[in-house]
Amino acid sequence: MTNQSDTRKHRIENARTATKLVRGGTKRSLFNETSEAIFMNSGFVYDSAEQAAGRFKGENDGYIYSRYANPTITMFEERMILLEGAEAARGTASGMAAVNAALLSQLKTGDHVVAAKALFGSCLYIVENILPRFGIDVTLVDGTDIDQWKNAVTDKTTCVFFETPSNPTLDLVDIAAVSDIAHSVGAKVIIDNVFATPILQKPLELGADIVVYSATKHIDGQGRCLGGIVLASEEFVEDTLAPFLKHTGPALSPFNAWNMLKGLETLELRVERQCDNAEKIADFLGDHPGVKRVIYPGREDHPQSSLAKLQMSRGSTLISVEVDGDQQATFDVLNRLSIIDISNNLGDAKSLITHPSTTTHSSVDDETKSELGITDSLLRLSVGLEDVDDLIDDLGYALSKQST
Questions:
Q1: Distance between CA atoms of residues 231 and 236, nearest Å
Q2: Angle between the N-to-C axes of helices 71-84 and 254-265, in degrees from 0 to 180, rounded to the nearest 10
Q3: What is the distance of C-alpha 121 from the center of its chain?
Q4: d(CA 305, CA 4)
Q5: What phi and psi, each to the nearest 5 degrees, are found at residue 260?
Q6: Could you tell me which of 263, 274, 268, 267 has the C-alpha nearest to residue 220?
Q7: pLDDT tens across 320-363, in order?
Q8: Which of 51, 109, 121, 351 has the greatest number of CB atoms lying within 10 Å of its CB?
Q9: Which residues contact residue 225 at a Cβ distance below 8 angstroms, ignoring those fewer than 6 apart?
Q10: Model-wide pTM > 0.70
């Protein structure tokens, strides 16, 4: 006979997105609290020596140590599993910890990785500098060119890695096409889905095997804390990822996991509003004489607008814009803003803007930046929840000085 708890769990698992974001994964203690509890303890007590021995052997369920697992972190993982449509997940201390673990947990000397060139600076550092130190071969390709993916994979390719839309130029990678190519040689597909968010894009449904997030961004969405998560099949998470995380220790803080749970409750509302604002701002910038180019996947003038419509439900909360001027003129635009903050973060409730060439991608060499289109006049705008007319007025003032 099915009890009420099982019925509730089943209904939540099959509910719509908004319900999953508020109710998914919730576990109540004996006190029946409404908000999820924060378990800040590092360790756990056993009823007997036999129970302790059984836990360590994996013979009975239960928590051992918060570096391995923790009730608050479990709630965050389970809610993300429901949202992403994954079988399993593990939280990490940051987004970069998630990327690093997703790669290194499955790689060994002699393996081969194919990655898109258009990556966040730290991701590019991992694939260009860290992986080769361990004898792992890496091939970088133009992620938008399917032929380059086809030509790059070999029978030694263990995984492929890319982000779409890419940071900061908002290039798109055809997830389904690249997944087919990777799977043809037995390689796993790892996607950094931060810019699209789990609301706007579902990589696992399009053929990806592993999805990583910096939960610091839209999932927390309020600039409070760091966190990351890896979502994949139960086999990969339990047999490959979990042992790596257990023994290397990039554990997510229970307090940060609780913040992520609170962020998830409003994620859909925030992302939809941010997209509303981004669409209007992109149109404004597209008509401004002080702007050389606007890059936004939701616009028809994006070179991959058809692909954006195919694999994304909306055009993202991010806009990239090239100012009609040199680096100093671009800095002047930044310095005239009074509502939008200069910051390298993104996905926040507050609108944030950065100059990628000298911040997020400052470690990338000039030749690569030029190849990727990261110019001295490129800005990346993360659109927040402010009144869109105030944001447009702020940008208009900053750019009007540029165009005179």
A1: 9
A2: 40
A3: 14
A4: 47
A5: -65, -40
A6: 263
A7: 999 999 999 999 999 999 999 999 999 999 999 999 999 999 98
A8: 351
A9: 216, 253, 255, 256, 259, 260
A10: yes
**366 to 165, 219, 295, 369, 370: CA distances (angstroms):** 22, 32, 21, 5, 6
Which amino acid, one-letter code, is at 296?
Y
| 283/3 Cα distance (integer angstroms) | 53
Report pLDDT digits (tens) over 76-127. 999 999 999 999 999 999 999 999 999 999 999 999 999 999 999 899 999 9
Distances (CA, A) of 207 to 110, 168, 177, 325, 346: 26, 24, 9, 41, 27
Whether 81 contacts 127, CB under 8 Å: no
Vertex 270 angle, CA 268 and 276, to 5°: 105
Distance CA(340)–CA(381), nearest Å, equals 9
Asked if residues 236 and 189 have their Cβ atoms less than 8 Å apart, the reply is no
Instruction: Give the bridge partners for 295, in sequence order.
Output: 320
Q: Name the band, by pLDDT with cuts 50, 70 and 90, for residue 148.
A: very high
Distance CA 333, CA 325 (A): 10
Q: Are strands 352-354 and 341-342 parallel, antiparallel or unpaired?
A: parallel
